Known about the structure:
Blueprint: E1 2-3, E2 9-10, E3 15-20, E4 36-42, H1 51-61, E5 70-75, H2 81-100, H3 113-134
Antiparallel strand pairs: 1-2, 3-4, 4-5
Helix pairs in contact: 1-2
Amino acid sequence: xxxxxxxxxxxxxxxxxxxxxxxxxxxxxxxxxxxxxxxxxxxxxxxxxxxxxxxxxxxxxxxxxxxxxxxxxxxxxxxxxxxxxxxxxxxxxxxxxxxxxxxxxxxxxxxxxxxxxxxxxxxxxxxxxxxxxxxxxxxx
Length: 140
């Protein structure tokens, strides 16, 4: 079990890793060794996540989420497969932790009396400028 938060833990069986050739650093090894990691996590069918966290995670994932609801994280920042595995897992955990935070509800506010006055004064000044443009040119 991978502990994400105090209340959420992921089963390692829910994660699927595949290894691909990296386009990043690696020297001559870059064409021989599959050091990049593709981590797959099925968000929609995960028994570990509550429904509200799943919805927020799907929204946060963006393009990394497939139409079937599978989150794909590709890590190729490092030269070694092991460090890329750690990086991909850490990025997944950070994304899930971010999805566990409930957004603050927006409380509607009203404009202050002073801001209403400033707005009306600015409108009046602008109106005067435009009125000045419409007059016939004077004889100077």
